[in-house]
Write a structure and sequence with these properties.
The chain is an alpha+beta fold. It has 2 domains: 103 residues, Tumour Suppressor Smad4, CATH 2.60.200.20; 93 residues, Winged helix-like DNA-binding domain superfamily/Winged helix DNA-binding domain (Arc Repressor Mutant, subunit A, Orthogonal Bundle). Helix content is 15%, strand content 32%. The chain contains 3 helices and 18 strands. The strands form 4 sheets. A 6-stranded antiparallel beta sheet has the order 2-1-11-10-7-8, with no helix packed on it. It has a 5-stranded mixed beta sheet with strand order 4-3-5-6-9, with no helix packed on it. This is Transcriptional regulator. Keywords: DNA-binding, Transcription, Transcription regulation. One of its GO terms (biological process) is phosphorelay signal transduction system.
């Protein structure tokens, strides 16, 4: 059977980050496991409804429906209306129960051994709200009352991720915003390696604290910043 589309679990117990679910069936039910019901993608979080969402194949398109879940569903930060069709697109980020469970959707099926880059957000279900403020004009962060100056590349990376906060930012968009001085290579892409980008993300996590900027990386897709930041 040809692969149609897939889901990657970014966060959601009991699955490991990077778990791949193939959407070859006409319907895929997603919800909380119980004695009476075992959904196709079954989570254990009590805030997930037993019948939370369903994804259907409709005319070669994956269409998501919230089934009247108690704590709601979001796609790319937009709250869904229950029982309303929402066609899915590549790189859509689906959040269940206020973001306690996060799923990445793609029509580009990858090997099921695909792993997501290490995510600090997978350590626990709730995202900690740390005392963090960003001053764009001063190019500095205030973490736990301590002022930390941002380098140019740190500033540009955090800025572009913050502009699309809680949404996936494609790799090429990040490269163009963070390295505007670079020229496109022979293939038309900016001469910025993935290792260089990963190293910058690593430096940001190390400098500001691994829990300050919850930056997740989906290989081949891009980066996403999950947070509730204050900026000025």
């Amino acid at each position: 059977m040809d692969n149609f589309a897939c889901l990657y679990v970014v966060r959601g117990e009991p699955y490991r980050a990077g778990t791949c679910v193939n959407l070859n069936e006409d319907e895929t039910n997603i919800g909380r496991i119980s004695q009476e019901l075992t959904p196709d993608l079954a989570f254990t979080n009590a805030f997930i409804s037993r019948k939370h969402i369903i994804i259907r194949k409709e005319q070669d398109k994956a269409v998501l429906y919230d089934l009247g879940s108690r704590h709601g569903t979001e796609i790319n930060g937009v709250q869904l209306t229950p029982h309303t069709p929402y066609p899915l697109n590549n790189f859509d980020i689906i959040r269940l129960a206020k973001g306690m469970t996060v799923i990445h959707f793609s029509y580009m099926f990858a090997d099921q051994t695909l792993e997501i880059e290490p995510l600090s957000i997978t350590r626990q279900l709730e995202i900690p709200k740390l005392p963090l403020e960003i001053s764009w004009e001063k190019r500095e962060c205030v973490v736990d009352g301590k002022r930390i100056a941002m380098s140019e590349k740190e500033y540009l990376l955090i800025r572009v991720l913050h502009e699309h906060i809680n949404r996936l930012v494609p790799l090429e968009e990040i490269k163009s915003k963070v390295w505007p001085e670079r020229s496109p290579g022979a293939a038309g892409f900016l001469d910025v390696s993935l290792d260089e980008l990963n190293a910058l993300v690593y430096r940001v996590r190390k400098k500001y604290g691994k829990d300050t900027f919850l930056i997740s990386a989906i290989r081949g897709g891009g980066y996403m910043l999950e947070s509730d930041l204050k900026s000025s």
